[in-house]
Amino acid sequence: MTQDHIEIKISGRKFHIKLNNFTPEAKDEIIQTFDQKDFELTELLKAHLGKIQDYANLNQNLKSLLAKLSECTTIK
Description:
It is built from two helices and three strands; from the N terminus they run E-E-H-E-H. By secondary structure, it is an alpha+beta fold.
């Protein structure tokens, strides 16, 4: 069962963050990345920026795949 919150320490301060409205897959990734971790603020920012880059790459790959699929359907 997926937990409904995470505990994270940022620059020495402890935070409890609810995971309402996240999909089970997103919760699992959030828990794996952040739960029970101790981050300095710059490390947290770097982790966030890395995820933004990952999602931008995924979005670009999906757009490319969609364009290729569109080409295949128009060739027929």
